[in-house]
User: Which sequence fits this backbone?
């Protein structure tokens, strides 16, 4: 089953409170949600590491992993979840296959 994880960037931004939307648009240096894309770089002045700007796509995946994924209805029947990035690898043989 494929589940769409969001209604789209413009719809998500337009659904924010006026204060949240204004803050995001300011951080992304745009005046309208229509000017945004997943490749838009937005910065947070308070943080040196994001002063240069991070793509919205990266920030969305982080928010999805940290918040939305855990309450997604398709995952309710599961007690555990294992997430492996494409650049992750195991350093030794596992005693039991976690996917079996």
Assistant:
């Amino acid at each position: 089953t494929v589940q769409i994880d969001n209604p789209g960037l413009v719809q998500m931004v337009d659904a924010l409170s006026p204060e949240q939307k204004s803050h995001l648009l300011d951080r992304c240096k745009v005046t309208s949600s229509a000017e945004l894309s997943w490749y838009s770089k937005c910065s947070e002045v308070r943080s040196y590491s994001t002063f240069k700007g991070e793509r919205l796509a990266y920030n969305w995946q982080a928010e999805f992993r940290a918040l939305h994924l855990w309450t997604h209805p398709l995952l309710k029947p599961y007690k555990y979840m294992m997430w492996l990035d494409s650049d992750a690898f195991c350093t030794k043989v596992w005693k039991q296959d976690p996917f079996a």
Notes: The longest strand covers residues 41-42. Residues 4 and 72 are 11 Å apart (CA to CA). The two ends are 20 Å apart (CA to CA).
